[in-house]
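#onboarding

Welcome to the new folks! Below is a worked example of what a typical request in this channel looks like: someone posts a single protein sequence, and someone else replies with the predicted structure as tokens. Don't worry about understanding the tokens yet, we'll cover that in week two.

Example request:
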Amino acid sequence: MAAMPEPHTDVPSPELSTVWLRVFLEVARHGSFTLAAHTLGWTQSAVSRQISSLEGALGGGPLFDRLPRGVRLTEAGRTLVPHAEAVVERLGRAGRELAALRTATGGRLRFGAFATADAALVPRAIAAFRARRPGVLLTREEGLTPALLDRLAAGELDLAVVSTTSRAPLAAYDLHHLLDESLYVAVPAGHPLAGRDRVPLSAFADADWISGSPRPEGTLLDAALAQGFRPRVAHVVAEWTAKQGYVAAGLGVTLVPALAAASVRPDVVLVPVQDAQVRSVYAATVRGWSLSAAGRAFVAALREAAAEVPGHPVPEPRPPRNTA
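Example response:
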């Protein structure tokens, strides 16, 4: 016959009220129920009941010796003091941190952005946000829109600045609209079309193009496909400043979004494109996940920065786009 298990002898942890612990610490600090009651704004009998409840929850032994004048901690009371102080301090710290989160005066915000947004939009937003919310720890990552969305869905980012260029699926996200970018064609100084007011993209149908990908699909050159021609990619160059170097050397032309227009080099001319498909830029968050007060404040800073980007109409603030 199998042996019966031994009875469980562990003493269960008592259910303690944090109010009891706060009252206990006040009495221990003052050595008096009367002075503790005065500090708390309570009656002496109310303080006495709280201490009795705490003593009962801890097994019934006294925490204080009741003396003719005041009280004195017993050995059990002296043992409890550091534990009570730790609990009350941790709860107080938690309350302060939660209050900071509610008011966006503390906490952290992790966000990512695609490279072109880092040219002007994101730095302006960071500067404005840090001036207003210096207590928030802000961390940034750079990446392509699909990778940023993966990080967002995995909970590794709180917010991501993304664009519609990559054709990444956006159905799982709330999209906080920032701007709709107009496009420019970067040409070398002296190009026949340099200085023109607005030019149809089809005027560059026979040009050599510089792009970050050998295929136009999923890039800014989607705009050319929408205009009915397939651009000839002569040079695949990923980095934006390097693309400008190729343009300046007369090796081809490249499309430039409004976000990057302010950082063009002086020997490159931007020609505004007429009737070209624009790309939309959003601050994306995971649909159904709460955005913190700091996140909402950063979206507001991004919208303000977007209004300063040249070459696009200032968008009216609108609720997040739920794409479900």
